[in-house]
Amino acid sequence: MPEEHVGTITHYFAKPEVGVVKLTADIKVGDVLHIRGHTTDVEQEIASMEVDHAAVETAAAGTEVAFKVKERVRKGDDVYKVTPD
Question: CA 40 to CA 60: how far, in whole Å?
């Protein structure tokens, strides 16, 4: 499936297992993201996300958004939105 670059990981919080992404494109709850880095390769659907500790359904380019991740991600990892053919 094709992928569109949507941002870069800026922070990872281990205890709540949350990644923070600086967006370069819009995303929404339900999108499938693929996070890739030197040692990272995670694909998952966004169940919920927050901007400034407030739950949101969509996030626009230029914002930092936080969401729960199922595996460790690292600062600098690239984030791609998986798009249907």
Answer: 24
